[in-house]
Structures are given as structure tokens and as C-alpha cells.
Design a protein that fits this description.
GO molecular function, one term: hydrolase activity
Protein name: Purine nucleoside phosphorylase
Shape: globular
Helix content: 10-25%
Order of helices and strands: EEEHEEEEEEHHEHEEHEE
CATH topology: CNF1/YfiH-like putative cysteine hydrolases
Number of domains: 1
Number of strands: 14
Largest sheet: 6 strands, mixed
Organism: Veillonella seminalis ACS-216-V-Col6b
Number of helices: 5
Distance between the termini: 36 Å
Keywords: Hydrolase, Metal-binding, Transferase, Zinc
Structural class: alpha+beta
Pfam families: Cu-oxidase_4
Amino acid sequence: MARQNRTVIREGGGFPGRPFEFEAAAALTGFPLMHGVTRRFGGVSKKPFDSFNLGLHVGDDIEAVWENRRRLAKHLRVGPELLTCAQQVHGTEISEVTAENVGAGAFQMDKAIPNSDAIFTRLEEVPLLLLVADCVPVLVYDPTHHAVAVIHAGWRGTIGHVPVLTMQAMADAYGTRPQDCHVYLGPSIHYDSFEVSEELADTFREASYIPDQIVGYRYRADKGIQTPHVNLQQFIVQDLRQFGVPLQHITVSPTDSMTAAGCYSYRREFGKTGRMALFAMLRKKKK
């Protein structure tokens, strides 16, 4: 498994009250890249979305979400109209962000890049944004070609190998090589919390390279039985390693979104909750 202790919690200030927080990969801090996964504190949304909800589609007050997005944009030192988002559908479709679609979905969900669970770009000073609340947020940075991708990997996207498919799309577009890339898996639901059906457990066994590292059983006291659990993060790490990403280039967040108070969790809160954002923005590379 990739090392899990190389993440840091940072703040984005400049507003009244508590600053918003985000988790970032320490291994990426030396690159011309701003990135992180936001936490749920430091915004203006009211319960049950309190308080730094960045999802426009969850039933939160739109003005509150816009204000939260403005705060994120101010931290990135760009206008909020540049925030570039995708209409995530729990699939494996991938889109490139070009000058024509910069700012898609910044203020309206129906204006986001359609039917995409991963977006990538080489454009500098353009923030990419994907939303999560248990699914695995994956960032890929290619320092050789100064390119970045943000990926939403739910269980369907994970089984569908969406992180590797995204890197293949970057290779086609820019010449990206897996051995050059750095990857960060952000806060998401972990093995202990991700109980699944036997049918889904079998699907993961069939799709994985080393099934015993992906599927196991935990005792559930209220039912008095062992129930299957799946390790999404390890599945993605196996995929990345098989594709050629060096283990030392992979950072896995130790944060389980279902048990961490600082995270939104769709499963813990029975669907009525906000969304964290995986954000990434290429800074201008020094000549």
C-alpha cells in the first residue's frame, strides 16, 4: 500500500469567522500546483450542509454555495467564474479542459462539462473542481508536461479503471508517461466503513489484480455476522502500479470520510449532505 502519512491540513483565510480547511498531499507541495480536498468547515451553508458545501445540486441555498465557491476562488487568487466543473455521472467518461470550456459549471450545475467523471488540462491559472462525499477523489499531476487531472472515482468508476483511463487520455493529448506522474487519493470512504453486498464484493474480486487485498470481511455486531467490505483505495493503487506509476509517487489520504467529523459523507448522513471539492490549478511554470 502507498504511504498514508504524507498529507497536511491547510487553511484558506481572508474571510470573517473560521477559515475553511483543506487536505493536501505533502509530496506535491514543491510543484507549481495548487491543490487539495476541502473540508466541511469555514463556510456559510446552514445545516445539514454546514458549512463549506461546494455542491450546487444537493438542495443547499444557492447563494450560500456561490459564497463558498467565491472563498475557494479567492484562496486560489482567481475569479470564481474560472472554476471549471463536470457533471459527474459515476462513469468513466473523461474530458479535456480547453479555452472553450473554462468556467463550465462555475455557477450552474447544468452548465458544467457534461457526462464526465474526470477532467484534465494544461491550461495555467484555471482551477478544476470535482465534488465528493465518500467517493475517492484522485489527482494526477504530470510535472514533465505540466498537466493535471481531477478524477471522481466511485465504486463504478473504480471498477471501470477511470484513473488509468484518464492517464491514457493525458498520454494521447500531451505525451504523459505514468512513471513521471504523481497521484493523490484524497479523503474518502475506507475499508472499515465500506460494507457492500456479496454480489458487489464478487465484482471487485473479479476485477482486481490481488483480490485478497481488496475484499475482506468485518464482524457486524448488530447482525451477528461477518459482512463483506471493499478497499477502494487499494484497488486504485493496484491499478496505478500495474499501469506503471511508481509506488513512491502515490499518496493515499488516511482520512475515512464516513468517520471523520471534517468530511461530508453520503453514507453516514443518508444522502442529505453537502459536498467536498477536489481542486487543482496549475500555476505558471517558471521559465
